[in-house]
Fold HMA domain-containing protein.
Amino acid sequence: MKTIEVKTNIMCGACVAKVTPTLNKTVGETNWKVDTVNPKKVLTVTSENLDEEQIIKAVEKAGYKAEKLS
């Protein structure tokens, strides 16, 4: 298992609720979380076979932005 972290613009619980169906389908229900308290709104994903670009595309598909964490 590898852990991938990306910066997002997912700001609150309502935003998390909106991305939940897409992320659950892409990475699995228990394999992701968003730290909305962190100023960078970090999405952490645990996955065997997904890469950073696939995670970013899933977030964008849900209507939000994601980018590499610097």
